[in-house]
Design goal:
By secondary structure, the protein is of the alpha/beta class. It has a domain of 214 residues: 3-Layer(aba) Sandwich (Rossmann fold), CATH 3.40.50.720. Helices cover 40% and strands 18% of the residues. Strands 3-2-1-4-5-6-11 form a seven-stranded parallel β-sheet, with helices on both faces. It has a two-stranded parallel sheet with strand order 7-10. Helix 2 crosses helix 4. It starts with a strand and ends with a helix. The structure holds uridine-diphosphate-N-acetylgalactosamine. Uridine-diphosphate-N-acetylgalactosamine binds next to helix 6 and strand 8.
Length: 313
C-alpha cells in the first residue's frame, strides 16, 4: 500500500515546495493540511500526483486527528511566522505555534505516525557571540515567536523520550523562493525586496542594513526535510540546523537584486525592529554528516529564480 504523508501548512510557501518535492519522488500519497490563513490553494496549482488538500486548523484536535492517523510521516510546518508579528500580537502566534503544535504531536502519537519532522526556527539562537551558530549553543530566544518555536523542539524531543514517537527538529534559517507571499509588512524580507523591484519602489531596511542572514533557498530546505524523514533512528529527538551555511547582509542582498534586475533604487532606512537578531549563519556540519544535507542553490541563483517567478505574476 502506498504510504500517506501529511504536510501541515502544505498550502503555504515552504509547505507547497515540500509537497512538490514529495510528489516528485512518486512513492506516497500526500495530504496538505492547511487552514488557508496564510496558505493558498493556488500555491498547489499545477501540482501533479496523488494530492489531497484538507482544510483544517491545527488547534482543533478532533479536526486534525483523523487526517493524521495512519500517516507514515508528518511534516509539521503550519505556523504563524514572523518575529515582529509575534511581538505586536503574541496571542494568535502563541495559540498556533505552541498549542497547535502540541495538538499535532498528540495526534501523531495517537495516530501511530512513524516519524515527525518539525519546522523549528533559527530564531531560537538569539544573538550569539560566535558565528556560525551550532546546535550545541544555548538557546536564547529574543521574541515570542522564537520562544514558541523553541518550545516545539522541546516537545519533539519529549514525545520521542516519553512516548517513542520518532521526531526530528530542523531549525529553518531564512528561507526564500517562489510563492513567498510579499503582501504583509510581516512577510519575509526577500519577498518584499522582490515586490519592490517589480513595482519600481525603494524598500525600507530596518536598522543599518548590516544585519546578516543565512538566506536558504526553499528547495534546499524541502530536500533536507525529506532527508530527515528517511534518516536512521539515531537522528530522533535531535535538532539540526537547516541553513545554507553562508550569511549576507541586507545591504549586500539589496545591491545584488538591483544588479540582477538592472535597476537602481536606493533603500530607505528605518528604526531596527524589536526582537530582531543581528547576525544569523548556520553551522551545517551536523546536518551534512548525519542527514546528508547538501544545499544546491547559491544566493544569486535563488534570487534569480525568485525574481523570475515574481515576473510571471
Ligand atoms: C526569523 C528567523 C527565520 C524564520 C523566520 C520566520 C532569525 C534570524 N530568523 O526571520 O529563521 O524562522 O523568522 O518568520 O531569527 N527587514 C527589513 N525590511 C523589511 C522586512 C524585514 O529590513 O521590509 C529586516 C528585518 O528587520 C530583519 C531581516 O530583514 O532584520 C529579516 O527579516 P524577516 O522578517 O525576513 O526574517 P527574520 O530574520 O525575522
Amino acid at each position: 500500500m502506498t504510504k500517506k504523508i501529511v504536510v501541515t501548512g502544505g498550502a503555504g510557501f515552504i509547505g507547497s515546495a515540500l509537497v512538490r518535492a514529495l510528489l516528485a519522488r512518486g512513492d506516497a500519497q500526500v495530504v496538505a493540511l492547511d487552514n488557508l490563513s496564510s496558505g493558498k490553494r493556488e500555491n498547489l496549482e499545477g501540482v501533479e500526483g496523488p494530492l489531497e488538500l484538507v482544510v483544517a486548523d491545527i488547534c482543533n484536535y478532533d479536526g486534525i486527528a483523523p487526517v493524521i492517523a495512519g500517516a507514515d510521516t508528518v511534516f509539521h510546518l503550519a505556523a504563524i511566522p514572523s518575529v515582529p508579528r509575534s511581538v505586536a500580537d503574541p496571542i494568535p502566534s502563541h495559540q498556533v505555534n505552541t498549542d497547535g503544535m502540541f495538538q499535532v504531536f498528540r495526534a501523531c502519537h495517537a495516530g501511530g505516525v512513524r516519524r515527525v519532522v518539525y519546522a523549528a526556527s533559527s530564531s531560537a539562537y538569539g544573538d550569539t557571540e560566535v558565528l556560525p551558530k551550532v546546535e550545541t549553543m544555548r538557546a536564547n530566544p529574543l521574541s515570542p515567536y522564537a520562544a514558541q518555536k523553541l518550545m516545539g523542539e522541546y516537545y519533539a524531543s519529549v514525545f520521542y523520550n516519553c512516548y517513542g514517537l520518532e521526531t526530528v527538529s530542523l531549525r529553518f534559517f531564512n528561507v526564500f523562493g517562489p510563492r513567498q507571499d510579499p503582501s504583509s509588512p510581516y512577510s519575509g524580507v526577500l519577498s518584499i525586496f522582490n515586490k519592490c523591484i517589480m513595482e519600481g519602489v525603494s524598500p525600507t531596511i530596518y536598522g543599518d542594513g548590516e544585519q546578516s542572514r543565512d538566506f536558504t533557498f526553499v528547495t534546499d530546505v524541502a530536500g533536507l526535510c525529506i532527508k530527515a524523514s528517511l534518516a536512521g533512528p539515531e537522528v530522533c529527538g535531535k535538532v539540526y540546523n537547516a541553513g545554507n551555511g553562508n550569511r549576507y547582509t541586507l545591504n549586500m542582498v539589496w545591491e545584488t537584486l538591483q544588479k540582477i534586475a538592472g535597476v537602481s533604487l536606493p533603500a530607505n532606512y528605518g528604526p531596527a525592529r524589536t526582537g530582531d537578531v543581528k547576525h544569523s549563519q548556520a553551522d551545517t556540519t551536523a546536518a551534512v554528516r548525519e542527514l546528508g544535507h547538501a544545499p544546491q542553490v547559491s544566493l544569486e541563483e535563488g534570487l534569480r529564480a525568485t525574481l523570475d517567478w515574481f515576473r510571471t505574476l
